[in-house]
Amino acid sequence: EKYGVKEIDVYDDCFNANLERAEKILDLIIKENLNVKLRFPNGIRANMVNLPFMKKMKKAGCIEVAYGIESGNQDVLNKIPKVIFLDEIRKAVKYTREAKILTVGFFILGLRGDNEKTMQETINFAKELGVDAAFFSILTPYPGTPLWSLIEKEGKFLIKDFDDLHQSSGKMLFSHPDFPPSDLTEKMQKKA
């Protein structure tokens, strides 16, 4: 009331990891009649979604939900490890759309095990899902992550300094035998 807030963006990508907790928060928003728009632009867990939950999200004021889908190939998802199945993603997007909430999908190209076929499957999966917006980025290693350590040991960085280290560069920032070549990944990202 004091600041006239009209919208709240929730950046907790584990918001629904504990469904009971998430529902309590939504129930309080509904009970207090906060009358705000809710967005989840950072994403929520697709494997923790059902239709009643998404309808409650809508009732609480939710207008947009993002999902970190990553890949349209199950073998690639298993190597991340994402610990999610393509059918769970399909259901989550279906429920979100049925609740009349805008749906955003985040996809990553250049993952371990990716090749031209699997990256095309990811593009096709995004189209199949019918998300309202699809964002395709190229896998980006960050210092302190297992991927960064793997590249230091067995691969090669293709960047000169940290100014080049960002996920929206449109460039593959490393090479490693378990990952697709940079020219292919960059081509597929442009295609996507």
Please provide a written account of the structure.
- The protein has about 190 residues and is of the alpha/beta class.
- It is about 40% helix and about 20% strand.
- The chain contains seven helices and seven strands.
- The protein has helices at about 20-30, 50-60, 75-80, 85-100, 115-130, 145-155, 180-190, and strands spanning about 5-10, 35-40, 60-70, 100-110, 135-140, 155, 175.
- Helix 1 runs parallel beside helix 2 (about 50-60).
- It is elongated and about 55 Å long.
- The model has no long low-confidence stretch (mean pLDDT about 95).
List keywords for this structure.
192 residues; alpha/beta; two-stranded antiparallel ribbon; 7 helices; elongated
Question: What's this model, at a glance?
Answer:
This protein has 192 residues and is α/β, with parallel strands linked by helices. It has helices at 19-31, 51-59, 74-79, 86-98, 116-129, 146-154, 182-191, and strands at residues 7-9, 37-40, 62-70, 102-109, 133-138, 156-157, 174-175.
Total helical elements: 7
- The best one-word shape is elongated
| Sheet having the most strands | 5 strands, parallel
Spatial order of strands in the largest sheet? 1-2-3-4-5
The strand count comes to 7
Strand fraction equals 15-25%
Order of helices and strands: EHEHEHHEHEHEEH
Unreliable runs, pLDDT <50, ≥5 residues? none
How are the SSEs ordered, and which strands pair?
Elements: E1 7-9, H1 19-31, E2 37-40, H2 51-59, E3 62-70, H3 74-79, H4 86-98, E4 102-109, H5 116-129, E5 133-138, H6 146-154, E6 156-157, E7 174-175, H7 182-191
Parallel strand pairs: 1-2, 2-3, 3-4, 4-5
Antiparallel strand pairs: 6-7
Helix pairs in contact: 1-2
